[in-house]
Amino acid sequence: MATDLLVLSDTHLPKRARELPAQLWHDIESADAVIHAGDWVSEESLDEMLQRSRRLVACYGNNDGGALRSRLPLIATAEVEQVRLAVIHETGPAAGREKRMDEQFPDLDLLVFGHSHIPWDTVTPAGLRLLNPGSPTDRRRQPYCTYLRVKVEGKAVTTELVRLPPRKA
Questions:
Q1: Please, which residues have CB within 8 angstroms of residue 168's CB and are 6 or more apart in sequence?
Q2: N or C: which end of the chain has fewer CB within 10 A?
Q3: Could you check whether the bond before residue 165 is cis, i.e. omega within 30 degrees of 0?
Q4: How far from the centroid of its chain's Cα atoms is residue 57's Cα?
Q5: Which residues pair with 112 in a beta bridge?
């Protein structure tokens, strides 16, 4: 039986958007677990996510203040099916990322990260899967706001990048 994950980062509520899109909340509530890679900005967004998700694996980001940092770790870890995963906000520059993450996380199968708002899906030379869902509220220079639906079955991980429609002003 597969486990459905909803992966997001850089929600920046209420600075980049007043709320998350209804489509995203539907996916959050439907998922077996939610993975959030930081930059919540408000405790209220964490509280709502805790209420509306079945399981939350999350860390804080560079824009998260002391209250969020007291409630969330710098690096969160979990095991889903046979996949050992961690979530961290920042991994540094794209150049050399795979090598750095292999060295920093030799015992993981999957690392979720955020910060750049740029979707990313690669596998390192050592076999570590690196995922960045982008941001559902702040696309920056990307064409869309995004998040990931991830299916874990045993050790297999499949992803679907979800592109959100433009927000109404």
A1: none
A2: C
A3: no
A4: 9
A5: 87, 131
